[in-house]
Amino acid sequence: MPNKKFWEFRNSAGGTELLLYGDISQSSWWEDDVTPKQFADDLNDISDAEDITVRINSGGGDVFAAQAIGSLLGARKGKTTARIDGLCASAATIVACHCTNVIAANEATYMIHPVRMGLFGYLDATELEQYIGALNTIKENILNLYVKKTGRDKSEVTEWMDATSWWTASEAKENGFIDELVDDEDVVVENRNGALFVNNISMNLPFAKVPKHIQNELVHSTGSVNNPPEVIPVNNSHKEEKKMAEIKTVDDLRAAYPELVNEACATTVNEAVTQERERIRDIEDMAMPGFEDQTNEAKFVKPIAANEYAVNMMKAAKKSGEAFLNSAKEDANGSGVNNVGQDGNNEEGKEDPFINAIHAVNKK
């Protein structure tokens, strides 16, 4: 598989630059040939560079790749300046917020949105709750980064994120995401068959879905009229969603999020053990003498719920009681006690010598 790095380090007249143009992690960040370690190695190769300029023109992509890049850039000793040449959206904003300073062209655009995850297959309520928990954790981490960068209240930043906010460079600066605006960058917006291109780079976004102020840039920059097609190409979905949609099996999920899967499995196992202990305890509390075999079968051989066991025990007890009464009745009939009258005579009116003997003893 050929190496498809989505970043490029280069030397320019102004110093060392890191280019993040297009999708962040357009090939799998976790493949053997494109890894966080490889980016770290490339960054280490320019460790002599005191300052780095990160040039951004990206619609976003893999949030974990962006977090890894941002963390590595933020950990270096020199100054790191983000320079937004066109669009800085979604996961690309994570990289920008890790930089020491953020500069943007006056015509640039900034966008933040809620964390999203694409899923295939059938899920139960517990699995859905686990995914929701993962999304909330990712969102919380990004929110904390935004709050640190902007200095704004967390509730305000949360509202921006939940609403999917598109801003001009000036608006993003007012909200604290951009530190400085410059006029020396020309932003060229294009509509190519319904897809948004900025400075000749595909943003993997439908042109018809971007805000009007971006669509208006099409007229200003190219002189052509904005005529988006009625049908939006289905293959132009956002890369971040496309990336998540590649998780189709449990093995895929475990490979992408090993810590999350291990935590979920541990929680599920603990809950199952607790429930099983409670089931066995409840059955033992309801167990009755003489039904040891049925109780053992309900606990281990053919496990059933405690409430089902209770119903079975009621039926068994009723059946056992009826059998006891029938047996007592048969014993009474067999002993002849039912044929004895008060005067010692049997049903045929004849004297019973055994009964007469008992009466004689009692009279003494």
Automatic annotation (TrEMBL):
Q: Is Protein biosynthesis one of the keywords UniProt gives this record?
A: no
Q: Which domain of life is it from?
A: Bacteria
| Gene Ontology MF terms in the entry | ATP-dependent peptidase activity; ATPase binding; serine-type endopeptidase activity
Asked whether the keyword Repeat is assigned, the reply is no
* Name recorded for this polypeptide: ATP-dependent protease ClpP protease subunit
Q: Mind telling me which InterPro entries this protein's record contains? A: ClpP/crotonase-like_dom_sf (IPR029045), ClpP/TepA (IPR023562)
Q: Name one GO biological process term.
A: protein quality control for misfolded or incompletely synthesized proteins
Which GO CC annotations does the UniProt entry carry? endopeptidase Clp complex
Annotated keywords:
Hydrolase, Protease, Serine protease
Q: Show the ranges annotated as biased composition (Polar residues).
A: 335-344
PANTHER family in UniProt: ATP-DEPENDENT CLP PROTEASE PROTEOLYTIC SUBUNIT (PTHR10381:SF70)
Q: What ranges does the record give for the region Disordered, renumbered to this chain?
A: 330-364
